Amino acid sequence: MRLPSGGLIDRSHPIRFSYDGHSYQGVQGDTLASALIANGLKTVARSFKYHRPRGIMTAGSEEPNALVTLGHGAGQEPNLRATTLELYEGLAARSQNCWPSVNFDLLALNDLAAPFFGAGFYYKTFMWPRAFWEMLYEPAIRRAAGLGALSGLPDEDRYERAFAHCDLLVIGAGPAGLMAALEAARAGADVILADEDSRMGGRLNADLTEVDGRPGPDWAADVAADLAQMDNVRCMSRTTVTGAYDHGTFSAVERVAMHLPHPGDAPREAFWRIVAKRAVLATGALERPVAFQNNDRPGIMMAGAVRSYLNRYAVAPGRSVAVFGNNDSAHATARALIDHGIHVAALIDSRPGVQTDLDVPLYHGQVCGSEGRKGLEAISIATASGIEKVQADCLAVSGGWNPSLHLTCHMNGRPQWDESTAAFHPRPGMVPGLEPVGAANGVFTTADALAQGRKAAQAALTDLGLKPANIPLPKAEDGAYDITPLWSVPGRGRAWLDFQNDVTVKDVKLAAQESYRSVEHMKRYTTQGMAPDQGKNSNMGALAVLADATGRSIPETGTTTYRAPYTPTTLGAIAAGARGKGFAPERFTTSHAASEEAPMVEAGLWYRPSYFPKPGESYWRESCDREVGYVRNAVGICDVSTLGKIDIQGQDAGEFLDFVYTNMFSTLKVGRTRYGLMLREDGHVMDDGTTARLGEHHYLMTTTTAAAGQVMRHLAFVHQCLRPALDVQFISVTEQWAQFAVAGPKSRELLNSLLDHDITGETFSFMGCGDVSLGGVSARLFRISFSGEHAYEIAVPARYGESLFRLLRARAETLGGGAYGMEALNVLRIEKGFITHSEIHGRVTAFDVGLQGMMSKKKDFVGKTASERPGLMDPDRERLVGLKPTGPVKQLTAGAHLFNLGEDAVRQNDQGYITSVGFSPTLGHFLGLGFLRNGPDRIGEEIRMVDHVRGIETTAEVCHPVFFDPQGGRARD
Amino acid sequence: MIELLAKTPCDGLLPRTIGTVTLTEISFEAITSVAPLTGQEDAVSGTLKAQMGAAFPKPGRTTGKAHARAVWSGLGQALVLGPALQPIPGAAMTDQTDAWACVALEGDGARDVLARLTPLDLRPSVFRQGHAARTELAHMSAVLMRTGESRYGIMAFRSMAKTLVHDVTEAMTSVAARTRL
Known about the structure:
The complex is a heterodimer. In chain A, the strands form twelve sheets. In chain A, strands 8, 9, 12, 13, 14, 15 and 27 form a seven-stranded mixed β-sheet that branches. Chain A has a seven-stranded mixed β-sheet with strand order 17-23-18-19-20-21-22. A six-stranded mixed β-sheet of chain A has the order 40-41-42-39-33-43. In chain A, 21% of the residues lie in helices and 27% in strands. The radius of gyration of chain A is 38 Å and the shape is elongated. Chain A contains 23 helices and 49 strands. In chain A, helix 5 runs parallel beside helix 10, helix 8 (303-312) runs parallel beside helix 9 and helix 16 packs across helix 21 (822-831). By secondary structure, chain B is α+β, with helices and mostly antiparallel strands. Chain B has two domains: 16-27 and 99-180, Probable tRNA modification gtpase trme, domain 1 (Gyrase A, domain 2), CATH 3.30.1360; 30-95, Alpha-Beta Plaits. Chain B has three helices and eleven strands. In chain B, the strands form two sheets. A six-stranded antiparallel β-sheet of chain B has the order 1-2-8-11-10-9. Chain B has a five-stranded antiparallel β-sheet with strand order 4-5-6-3-7, covered by helices on one side. The longest helix of chain B is centred in the C-terminal third of the chain and has 19 residues, at 161-179. The radius of gyration of chain B is 17 Å and the shape is globular. The relative contact order of chain B is 0.20.
């Protein structure tokens, strides 16, 4: 019911929205919750387990009941709290966890079976038969229970991640936070003020407390406006600080466009990482309920929330309202109701002897029950003289206030119990640099909140070397917070502690009885404090009941662990910017645009052509076989720019390379290239590649594509940590050069048709290198071969890469060749027994790949000593061999394992495994490379190959790994 | 004789203006890495200054001015952006002209755009004109420098130019859309 006047709303801006398909009207400034109350809706949800009707209970992000789903399809977002959803034109919300409707829910039958559904019911009941749990029980239970559902579709909304830095982060813009922000801002500090609400002011907007002789909301709005126009202040409303992390880092989620009907390109939410030198925690406090029989009936809500609805939203949650509490908050609510002309049916105070000057019926006692079909109709009050029944359609409850100290606990701090406020308070220094103030610090008067806010800001300013501004402290109310603890009212029936998870006092007692005495065990056994609200309403009550049931004090019992995020955070926001290809950059070669027909394969971040299909080819193997033929018979072109290239200079460059490679490079002649092998410090192979000597003190190292970054890092480590005295500098030039393999018997012919000056076998002999030019552009030419053919690699500055690739390809085609991709490259190198990271996968030694001869005995190098450890040169190790199929199955598969003939294909009999395979069009059959126990001594043996994953089995002959042109004449020719 | 055609890293992708911020490709005559060899730091800095008017930059700094700038790019290493350099005795020098996609981000809100891409503290009082950083920018290793009141230079690997433009323009789109709210 909308009140005729008042409220921080704009009545001139009506807003149409729908709830469960029915159309309603609210006004600008409403939340969905206040608009539903304005339209007289009481039951807005069904509970998690028993499907009991539930109503709006709070006016903030702690709401356990009023969860709704917005949107459809990919944009569907469940479990949104109606209490924080700002109303916008066309908002369409749906209730959850009910069928067919929230008012008539068939699964409410669960409620009748409630005696069976106590804590641990599922654990105890669905034990047998064991297989039924996954097949039958769990799916059925999951269908019946649960809150909102995801669409299962990829989220198409825009999200954003962002970083911010400041001197002082103020979390919460109530009186304490505003005061802290203003003090720091006036002193010239960089301030970020974040508040989860759309409107700054915190409880001032709900309680209308006077500050500085003016209504609280006016004072708050003025301060917020002041702050907003200062250059050194960033005011972030709709922003929830969700976690506190090391080094003053905080996570925060900003609802950027969730409150707008037409967001345009604006993100729905932004995930912020805020780094602050100091922080002030002014998050206020959350009011807690009292457990009594049927305290979950729609119409029963928090006393402070009732004030919020009356004062801020000008809606009345009832016509005849009872108020029940153990502290002065209840009296404040009764007063607010009277001020708004609403009938107060009863004021029930559990504290003995407390009086009121309000003209309301005052009961000294406790509410012990409620009645009503779809919403509250009457309450029962237990007093010294017996039980009395009072008619009321709304009950405002206050069991006291819990400081919102969650963030102080995010770095493993535990709060301390404070007897006078019957609440946990933060301890000093729980999060370094973060100072809790005001209600978050257990201080419950506005005057104290303002003073603490200013004081904390001043302390932060002093730490930062800034002079405090010492802004005057405004006058505000300074009453006492008088509370006598009351957690649960004794009596029969179910008294709810956790509304979101349907956990009752009895459940907690049962947990204790069944030896789940630790608060963490109780939580997991009963599910209390889980799900979206994380027990914001219920944790204190539940642990107090547990303490009582186990005969311990509340501080002895302790709290469960507070973890980030403070409020539910969408994965969309957390993953902002990292969806799909946003996860990692894409690297494209210069020839990418000239390789359009080629399916791409990802090699690290690079995209490389797999093969270049021609019209009429229906299967990749056809293309691959053809491309292999180009190289073996004519000439093939392949972009090899992705290989790492490192330019190394300095008078000690040779010595440096001698130390990182197993073989010698200081002896390499200028204008020559050599294959090198690099070990990790543990003696296993790290990488291989060719290194060219371009000048006396100038080398160019080539790494594999996969290990380019690792090798660069390794070189930096070796230089900085192991050999700092060497005068050497190095830098990656991978990106500077576009490099292409020109391979095949006609490779020189092709090059000479392009180069400004012809090359010959003398000027560029095998493993030679040097400068050339094409069309006046300087290039580098290396006569190296990864195919075993007469081959070159030519490198030009990357700007010319695409152009050169097109030329090379076109010329190759006129010579009966063309471009080849990764598949053909792989077949070519397997035919030659050349290794890649499929073989040097991190667990093999130089000995294993048959390259022990490359480990120089004349010098020390990284990994030398470790490679000589016992066992690393044991002949019985799995060592590199070639394989070809012998049985009727003519296929080998990579990843298959090897076994002796006649032995079971089980782990204990494992003889090795296959690392690379390919069909060799040159030789007409499959080839494989793999590792076999004592392999090189078993050449000619027949072995059994079993691929357990693909279900393929064959026999294979163990061969020398070099299948084709073992003398290497073709490359040297 | 054949003719090789040159393409810039961001060919066909830039310039883009979204809202008040513009992203433009910058092409330098040359980019040269300069790394003084042992004990040659001062001499190299002196020669560099004589050649192009800017000394060897300190860590996290740039020297010089537009089209003749040196930017610190790592331990004992700077990238000289602008004129092609003559050999400097005592320095390891490497041609990097084609290795980098270089762009300028300029306009009101440029800093807000960067705040969506890099975790660096870019407050004007912290990241001043003449400051530079090797940093992570949208998962990419980048060189970032502030070259004007609201102008920043960004260098990323040439092969990542498409991702660079995509991610920066996405951030520009969000920033522009926010100002319209």
